[in-house]
Amino acid sequence: DYNIALTLFYVTYILVEVPSNLALKCFGSIWLAILMIAFGIIALSTAFITNFTGLILTRMFLGIAEGGLLPGLVYVLSRYYRRKELVFRIGIFFGVAPSLAGAFGGLLSSVSYLRHLLGAHCHNRSKHYLCLFIIPADPEISHMLTEDELTIALKMIAADNVVGTFKREKTTSRLVLRAFNVNTCLNAFTYLLVNILFQGLSLFLPTVTATCKPSYSMPATIESQLRTVPPYIISIVWAVINSYFSFKIQKCGKIPPCFLCVCIAISLLLNIVGYAIFMGSKNPHARYGACFLAISGGALSGPMMLTWATDTAAPETVRAVTMALIPSLGTIGAVIAVWTYLPDDAPNYHRGNSLNLATCSLACVLVLLGVRYVYWENAKCDHGERDYRLEGKSQKEIDELGARHPAYRYQP
């Protein structure tokens, strides 16, 4: 029953992401505040569930409310920062947040009294209403910036646009469909693979920690939950270091700009080593050590893939759809992960770990193919082989070319 409810949550989560980001582009940040308030109300209602039908309905509505939050917040960030600056911001926001949730979620889940649950949801709901006032609007209309700051922000946005404008084009079906390009699809499929292994590990981790010999005079459940904290803390450090140095190195331009992809590949190699240990050893301490590698690699790879795809998406409609499409398709990986670690495969979960080892290996290969494609496309533009895209176009059509403009260069 739990797996069915979780799967239906992901179904609505997936379906709502692209429409939600297009609504955000149209209505502004007030849309995010509405989603957060709805999420708080629905989460509060889970305290009063009495049957399976209620569980299914609340999980599906939670998926609708939560689905647009991640791509929406990333889209808001992209309106304030240039492409080379996004890697650090998304890395901190999206790379650190899942690890923080993983570090403290398990321990908090042991507090199962209804009054604590109800109190926590009421407190969170009150904070959600603040989002109506604190989430920044688009820089064109934001009241959080001074006149000088607004001018700088708009010039920064225009500098990243090949046609030198910060104006957002009208949303059309043609621009929406353009988001389904080779680069986006490759990143989305890689993100899906990364999500399988990271979400799967969150299911496997309690089993690993439970097999470690107790060493403290406390209940085994509490100690097992405490052991899940250190791997996530290390992954936070890894995410911050990688995001910071990716940003600094791309900004100074002293080495080839493919450093972001190198960081993704290194993180995926950590996953490969971690899952190889899971497969090759039954020693609980070796497996626990492998958790540090697998969680650190998995927690960062997804945000980096989203950053890379965002960096190579233009104009605004294409970028908004791309930011939603990649997490949307990637969430299919979470659905698959729910069904990879099944009770009949316990306690070693050979099938689940084999699948995760294969997915991180394939993801590493796809990242290298993505780098090769980006350099190939940029070379075509350098040699004038994409100039035909300007022929017979009006100025409006040229402005909407975005990443297809011959002067645009993908960021490897």
Fold and architecture overview:
With 412 residues, this protein is an all-alpha fold. The protein has a single domain (2-404), classed as MFS general substrate transporter like domains (Growth Hormone, Chain: A). The protein contains 16 helices and no strands. Helix 1 (2-27) packs antiparallel against helix 14 (316-338) and helix 9 (182-211) packs parallel to helix 14 (316-338). The longest helix has 33 residues, at 350-382. The radius of gyration is 22 Å and the shape is globular. One of its GO terms (molecular function) is transmembrane transporter activity. It is a multi-pass membrane protein. It is found in: Membrane. Keywords: Membrane, Transmembrane, Transmembrane helix, Transport.
Core attributes:
MFS, MFS_trans_sf, mainly alpha, membrane, 412 residues, transmembrane helix, transmembrane transporter activity, globular, Growth Hormone, Chain: A
Rg over CA atoms, rounded to whole Å, is 22 Å
Strand residue content:
under 5%
Please state the overall shape, judged from the principal axes of the Cα atoms.
globular
SS class: mainly alpha
Topology order in helix (H) and strand (E) letters: HHHHHHHHHHHHHHHH
Counting DSSP E segments of at least 2 residues, the number of strands comes to 0
Mean pLDDT: 82
By DSSP (H or I, 4+ residues per run), the number of helices equals 16
Specify the helix fraction band. Answer: over 70%
Taken together, the total number of domains comes to 1
CATH topology call: Growth Hormone, Chain: A
Low-confidence stretches: 112-123
Sheet having the most strands:
none
The CATH superfamily appears as MFS general substrate transporter like domains
Distance between the termini: 43 Å
